[in-house]
Specification:
about 150 residues; alpha+beta
C-alpha cells in the first residue's frame, strides 16, 4: 500500500509567490498614478475657491488682493483676504502672484512634503482673474491646461 503525502510542495509555493509578485509589480504603479491624478483635484479646487473669494473681495473693495491670511478677517484697508494658504489636505500651497484693481494671478504648487511632488506631468497649476487656466510639469514645461481636465 502506498502512502501519498498531502499538501503544497515548495515548487508550487514558489510559483504562486512569483505570480503574485508579477501581478503586484504591474498593479502598484498604476494605483500610484491613479492616486496622484485623484489628488490633482485638490489644487484645482483650491484655485477655483480662491477665484470666488477674490471676486467677493473685489465687490467689497473695488480691487483684488495678493495677501492671503487665513487668520485675519478680509479687510479693504489692510488688503488682506481671509483664505487658507494651503489646500484642504495640505497637498498644495496657494499663492497670489500678482493682483491689482484690474485682475489677479494665482498658483497652486505642491507643498514641501506633499506626495504631489512625484506628479511630474501636472505639478503646478495657475489661474487668472479672466479664467485662464495653466498647468506646468515638474520640469517647468507648459502643459497647455490639459491637466485641468484630467
Amino acid at each position: 500500500m502506498s502512502h501519498r503525502a498531502q499538501g503544497v510542495t515548495l515548487i508550487e509555493l514558489v510559483v504562486v509567490v512569483g505570480i503574485v509578485g508579477i501581478l503586484a509589480s504591474i498593479a502598484f504603479p498604476s494605483y500610484r498614478n491613479y492616486v496622484l491624478r485623484a489628488n490633482r483635484t485638490e489644487g484645482r479646487a483650491a484655485l477655483l475657491a480662491l477665484a470666488t473669494a477674490q471676486e467677493k473681495f473685489y465687490l467689497q473693495c473695488n480691487t483684488y488682493t495678493a495677501t492671503l491670511d487665513p487668520d485675519a478677517a478680509s479687510d479693504c484697508d489692510t488688503g488682506k483676504l481671509q483664505f487658507p494658504i494651503s489646500s484642504e489636505r495640505g497637498y498644495y500651497t496657494i499663492t497670489v502672484t500678482a493682483a491689482d484693481a484690474t485682475g489677479w494671478t494665482a498658483a497652486a504648487e505642491p507643498a514641501g512634503d506633499s506626495p504631489q511632488l512625484k506628479d511630474v506631468d501636472c505639478q503646478r497649476y495657475g489661474l487668472t482673474s479672466t479664467g485662464a487656466k495653466s498647468a506646468r510639469t515638474s520640469a517647468d514645461a507648459a502643459n497647455n491646461g490639459e491637466c485641468w481636465g484630467k
